[in-house]
Amino acid sequence: MADLVLLRHGESVWNAENLFTGWTDVDLTARGEAEAHQAGQLLAEEQDRGLDLQVVHTSVLTRAVRTANLALDELARSWLPVRRHWRLNERHYGTLQGKNKKETAAEFGLEKVKLWRRGYDTPPPPLSLEDERHPVHDPRYRDVPESALPATECLADVVSRLLPYWEDVVVRDLRAFGAVLVVAHGNSIRALVKHLKSISDEDIVGLEIPTGVPWVFRLDASLTVTEDRFLGDPAVVAEAAAAVARQAG
Prior knowledge:
Elements: E1 2-8, H1 13-16, H2 30-48, E2 55-58, H3 62-75, E3 82-84, H4 101-108, H5 110-118, H6 155-177, E4 179-184, H7 186-197, E5 215-219, E6 225-230, H8 234-245
Parallel strand pairs: 1-4, 2-3, 2-4
Antiparallel strand pairs: 1-5, 5-6
Helix pairs in contact: 2-3, 4-5, 6-7
C-alpha cells in the first residue's frame, strides 16, 4: 500500500482578486498562508496516526512552493527531499491570464467561460509567442524545449503533459518510499485525479478542488485507489469547493 497526498496551494493574490492565473507567478495572500499552515496541521494529525511522508513534489510556481514550505514547517519535516517540475504547473489560460473571471463571463457568456474553465477539451485563445506572458520569456523554463511550452491549454492538454511526470517520477517515489506529498494547482490536481479515479471527460467538469485542503489517497500495489478523503471538517471542505465553482458567476 502507498499513501499519496494531493494539496492545492493556499489562496493566491489573484485567487482573491478573481483573476485567471494559470502560469502567472503570483504569491499567497495572508489567508493563503494560513491555509497552508492549516494544511500542515491536518497532515501532522495524520502523521500521528501513521502517515509517514517521505518525498515532496511541487510545481515551479511560487504559490505551490510556498504552500509546501509552510505545510512542511508545521509537520517539522522541512528536511524532506523536494522535487519541482513545470509539468505540475497550473493549466495555462492563454490570453485569459490576468482577466477577471466574472467580467470575462459577462463579455463572452457564462457557458463559453465555463467551457474554458472546466471543459475537458476546449482551450482559451492562445498567447502569441511575442507576448511577454508566454513562458518562453520566463527563465525558469529556459531548459524546456520551446515546442513543449504551452500558449494555452485545455484540461486534456494538462493530462497529456502531467502523466509522463506521474508515471516516470511520482510513481517511482511511491514505490520506493511509500508516502508522497504533491503540492500543485486546481487543474493539475484535477488532471491527476481524473487519471487515478478514471473519471469521464464529462464528469470531470464538476470536480472542484478547494485551496489548502489535503486530499489523501490510499493506493494498492497496482496503484489503484482503494480509499480517498479530504482532511478536515467536511462542511468546510464542501463550502470551499463551492466557492471555487462560484468564481466565474
